[in-house]
Structures are given as structure tokens and as C-alpha cells.
Amino acid sequence: MLHGPQRGLFDLEFRIPAECADALASGRADIGIVPSFELSRQDLRIIPGAGIAAHGPVRSILLVSKVPAGEIRSLAADASSRTSVQLARVILKQKFGASPAIAPHPPQLEAMLERADAALIIGDPALHLDPATLPYRVYDLGAEWTELTGLPMVFAVWAGRGAASAEVAGAFLASCRYGRERIEEIVREEAPRRGFAPDLAREYLTRHIVHELGEPEYRGLRRFLELAAGVECAAGLRF
Predict the structure, then answer these.
(1) 17-56+153-228, which class in CATH?
(2) Are 38 and 85 in contact (CB under 8 A)?
(3) CA–CA distance from 206 to each of 26, 70, 102, 203 (Å)?
(4) pLDDT digits (tens, 9 = 90+) for 166-222
(5) In 10 A of CB 236, how many CB atoms?
(6) What is the CA radius of gyration of the chain?
(7) Helix (H, G, I), strand (E, B) or coil at 38
(8) CATH class of 61-151
(9) Beta bridge partners of residue 35, listed in sequence order
(10) Distance (Å, rounded) from C-alpha 175 to C-alpha 4?
(11) What is the 8-class DSSP label of residue 47?
């Protein structure tokens, strides 16, 4: 949408996913890339075809723990994506029988682990960690979800308050494909700016992340929303 044929079709602002959701809620934005969990909090319509998903390990959403997962009683969480927080709740409850108290914290691993049994690190801060070298237990929540359900995990979707026209939906999917066809350009430009080795950026964008969503992904999305609703009701609060 910045460089391809869709350039100039939309007025763009760049925010973390939770802020995109807040902009939709307040009416400041018409369409946003929002955490999947927002579909249970707001009356939103998905723009089909493009989003952010994984079919296994996602690498950028890590639960790092000082204790086995079933013994986690407190969790410090980076709250920039509400879906990741709810996914941690679901996996800890459904797979490990744990229901920790969760508190927001800036994504600083050692400081988080001083306050809690475990830390939820997402996005670039997670990619800057090397799970193999950490002296803690590390759970990739994409892998844990797929092992638990056998389904893909959808982390974010494009959505708005009203139904999108075919032209709008087509522009979003075409923009997605334009970017996928230029992964090497993206790696070359973005990896150094974000402090990543090119091989890590390339592997993340081509192996871990799925950008086009179809029926398997939407089945995974529906299952996540079902489980997340049950865990949230049991907890009696919203994060």
C-alpha cells in the first residue's frame, strides 16, 4: 500500500495492533489490522483473504518461564497484542491446567521474570531473543496452539465496522500478494533497520508467518474465539 499499485488508495497510519483496535472502537479509523480477539469485543466485519496467521511455530510469540507451564501462577505480559495475551490464557488453561494472574509489563525479559513466574514476549522483542540460548523454559505459542487443536492460529485480521466492498477486499489481497512477491526487497530494507540478520527475517516472513487466509485459517480463528470466550468468562475479567 506504500509502494505498489494500491499506493494512494487509503490514508494510512501505523500503530501496534492494540492501538489499531482502539482507533476502530473510537471511530478514528475505518479499517485496521486488529488482534483476532477484538472480534469478540467489537462488532467488526472481517475483510477476507489477508491477515496474519501461523501453521505451527510462529517464533514471534514466546512464553518464557522459570517453572514448568503447569506451575505458572503469575505472568508478566507485553500487552501490545490482546490476541497473544488471550492465546496464552487459553493454552495455559487448556493444555497445562494453569490459570495465572496476568499483569502488563514492558517487553524486558529479565525485569518481567523478576516480577512473575513467566513472561509473554511478542513481536520484534521476541525475534531478538534466541530461544535456544535462554536459561529458561520457552514455549512458542504458535506451536502450542497447533499441537493443542490441530488448526492454524490467526493472530490478526483486517476488519472494519461495515462490510467491505469487493474492490476494497481485492485491494487488500492484491497488496498482500505484492509484498509476498517482493520478500527479498523487504528483507534487504527492513532487516538492518530493525537489527535482524537477513536469514532470520527471511525465515520469519516465509516459514513462520502466513499472510493469506482461507477456510482452514478461519476454522482456527473460530475455535480460538470459542476457547478464549470460555477462558475469559472463567477469569471474570478482560485484559
Answers:
(1) alpha beta
(2) no
(3) 34, 32, 32, 5
(4) 999 999 999 999 999 999 999 999 999 999 999 999 999 999 999 999 999 999 999
(5) 6
(6) 18
(7) helix
(8) alpha beta
(9) 156
(10) 7
(11) E
